[in-house]
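Sample intake sheet
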Amino acid sequence: MKQNALLVRLRNGEPLRGSEQLLLIIQLSIPAILAQITEVVMEYIDSSMVGSLGASASASIGLVASSTWLFGGLLRALCTGFTVQTAQYIGAGQEERARSIRHQGFVVCLSFSLVLALVGAALSGPLPGLLGGGADIRADATGYFRIFALSAPVIELTAFAAGMLQCSGNMVLPSALEILMCALDVVFNAFFIFPAGHFFPGAPGMGLGVPGAALGTVCAEVVTGAILLICLLFFSPILKIRKGEDRRLHARDLKNAARIALPVGLEQAIQSGAQIVSTTIVSPLGTVAIAANSLAVTAEALCYMPGYGIQTAASTMIGQSIGAGRMDLVRRLSVLTTAFGMAVQTLSGIILYREAGLMMATLSVDTAVQALGTRVLRIEAFAEPWFAASIVAGGCFRGAGDTLVPSILGLVSMWAVRLPLAALLTGSMGLSGVWLAMCIELHFRGVLFLIRLAGKKWMGKGVLNK
């Protein structure tokens, strides 16, 4: 696995011209953007396949979507505690310490995911009823969430291996495997969701319906996760296993991981809690509104997921820059990367507004769902640049190990702006009110993060001297 030449120069203290800084951003961002877009395409595949079964099938997944985001967010938050440290140690040239962090992260993340899988499985039965779902969608919602919850170790180790490779500067391999996972997801979904002979005579199929969508995704993740782990542990130039190196758990490293991951995890928990509250606001609006809300979220993801790809690149660049003591680059790279992300999502917002109807038509055969989803997506299109500001600036903060204040800003924005506005506007505007509240809140959050980025306090949160 070849290392990025510009990252090597950054770690070695060599100067990087402005054009080279922009090139580094593009080199690291493009593969990560493609990986995120592929992930959204996979969600499109799931949603369109399930959507072909009708509005009730889509609503059953939409009902528990906020809960799956919560679990997934907690799993990925823990990975952050170790990938940030790894990036900074690599930047500092302390590669053996980076490998120690990799080993500790593997043990802790696997243990945590096993516990979370058991908790999720136990909650899967009563959860749809607690979220206000109707009797007609509860069984499918329970089956979908139970399979998702039990797959937590697979999700965690896949995210961990991808994150470790990315923070070492290898963006291409995780991106390529995301594409493979998308292709596998199509195959496995077709097998598990639909009955035999659905596509052509003699075609195999299990006919599991909605739970089959979760099972198909899990199988795709098992294959790609195994490949990622093998590449990380045996072929990564920096992070592969070496004989005789330290494999103990160290209190200092675990403390640093907790300091970074806990605010992110708390943010994910409370924001997902807010999404769950939002789901309870949407649920009384009926099956069409639940389905339209869920599918519109999936459609919008195609526009904001590039921001998360750039966020990944930002975390790697800022983490390694801080580790290498290149404070001269931290400011310039953070501003350039955030501006790049806002430009990309401005373009995607324009596309979202123009093609909202087409996006919804690919996800549902129900015309009422299509019409309502198109309406709310066009509201959300205006928020994309500001959403990008919070996403990418947040990646810069994470790379520096600064997670507490950004998490607080996100929580204040969600609970003080979005939810009160949603509750206020839903009565008169229905689902459009929920999405208008979201649009206003994302503008507000973007401004808060840009103000934070303009300061200097976030740049002094590195782990090397903690």
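Comment: The two ends are 31 Å apart (CA to CA). DSSP finds 16 helices and no strands in the chain.
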